[in-house]
What we know:
Elements: E1 4-8, H1 14-32, H2 42-58, E2 62-69, E3 72-81, E4 95-102, H3 111-125, E5 130-133, H4 140-146, E6 150-155, E7 162-167
Parallel strand pairs: 4-5
Antiparallel strand pairs: 1-2, 2-3, 3-4, 5-7, 6-7
Helix pairs in contact: 1-2
The structure holds coenzyme A.
Amino acid sequence: MQGVDFVTVDPDDRRQLRELRKIWLPYWRETTTRDGSKPEKRRKIYRRLKNRVAHAHKTQKTGFNALYSEGRMVGFAFFGLSGGIRSIGIPPDYGMVMEFCIALSFRRKGFATEMNRQMEKLFLDWGITNTFLTPDPVTGDPFWRSVGYHDSQLKDPDTHRLIYVKEIHE
Length: 170
Ligand SMILES: CC(C)(COP(=O)(O)OP(=O)(O)OC[C@H]1O[C@@H](n2cnc3c(N)ncnc32)[C@H](O)[C@@H]1OP(=O)(O)O)[C@@H](O)C(=O)NCCC(=O)NCCS
C-alpha cells in the first residue's frame, strides 16, 4: 500500500494526541457499549488513552502506533509482549494486540490489513512469532479471521472473551 506510515505515538506530541483522541473516543464507545454497557465519561476514556501511550513509551517490546495515509491519521494499534496467561496455558513469549482501530470513514479499504502487516513486522523484529487477542465480536471477528487468526477455544479468565491466536511469519 502506497503513502502509508506506521509511526510510534509520542506522548509529548500534543498535536498528534489531539488527532488520536478523535479516533480513540468513538472506538472506545463503539467497542465497549456493544453489550448494552453505559458509555464511560469522555475524560475517563481520554485518560485510558494517555495511560496506554505512556505505558508503551516506557515498556520494551510494546508499541502504541498510529497509521497515517497521505499524512492523515486513519487508525492506531496498541500491541506488545504479553507475559502470557498462565492459568490457561498462553506462554509468556506470546505477543498480544490490546487495541486496534481504523476510523469509521476509512474502513473496508484495506487499511487494517496494512496496519496488521506492519505490526507483525514489529512483532518479528522483537522476536515474537505467536500472537493472541480477544476480537471485538462485530467488526473484529471477521477482520482477524481474514488476516489468519483462529479461535483457540480458550477464554480470557478475566473478561470471559474468546481468544484468537496466530503464528506469524516473514
Ligand atoms: C476491525 C477493523 C480494524 C477493520 O478495519 P478495516 O480497515 O475496515 O479492515 P480491512 O479493510 O483491512 O478489511 C479486510 C477484510 O476483513 C474483513 N472485514 C473487515 N471488516 C469487516 C466487517 N465489518 N464485516 C465483515 N468483514 C469485515 C473483510 O473480509 C475485509 O475484506 P473486504 O473488505 O475485501 O471484504 C475496523 O472495522 C475497526 O476499527 N473496528 C472497530 C474496532 C475493532 O473492532 N477493532 C478490533 C478490536 S479486536
